[in-house]
Amino acid sequence: MGQQDPQIAESKRRFRREIQRRLQAIQASDAVRRGHEISEHLTRTPEFAAASFVAGYVSLADEVRVDLVLAEAVVAGKPLLLPVLQGQRLLFAQWRPCSPLHRDVLGVLEPMGGAAGELPPGQGVLVVPGRAFDLRGNRLGRGSGFYDRILARRPAGLVAIGVAFLEQIVPGVPAAVHDLPVDALVTDDGIHRCDGSPGSAARRAVER
Questions:
Q1: Which H or E element spans position 67?
Q2: Which fold has domain 28-198?
Q3: What are the extents of the domains in the chain?
Q4: pTM score of the predicted model
Q5: Does the pLDDT value for residue 197 go beyond 80?
Q6: 121: Cβ contacts below 8 Å, ≥ 6 apart
Q7: Which residues on neighbouring strands pair with residue 128, listed in sequence order?
């Protein structure tokens, strides 16, 4: 990924500390309720309706819970893919309800057994967690670069949708060359279309 500019790296560390402070202030019951609302917004999007598959994740305690997104994908008969950590790569494996999950070395639940690989071609939706986002789609992760690498090699037709509480939205995320934006961002107040360019926030459409 190359050496990161020291100023950008320090800005990212400050953002992560601030966002962690904000997330810790959210009551657990509120986080569950708001995660459900965010998931409802996402499942009402035309991208979700048109998706031939959904790639999601099983949330950690300080991430937006997207259980409803996973459940709606299953109900709609869409193949559901979950991330599988293999070394320094995040691959995806199909998961079905009641199939076993186990925690990887980072403590994230992932499918047990089955073939894991790159995201398939086709019109899919990738649900992307993050520590912070701005309304241009720029994203700050935990620092591992897993999702940046996924976004860099994603197949044509895949729509990347970030999910975040309003507390995780900032005016501008410090971004390096390898930091790639998402296509849309879903928060408590709806879906924000992103194009990764200056001024896109002013043109965003909020769908409720």
A1: helix 67-75
A2: Rossmann fold (3.40.50)
A3: 28-198
A4: 0.87
A5: no
A6: 155, 156, 157
A7: 162
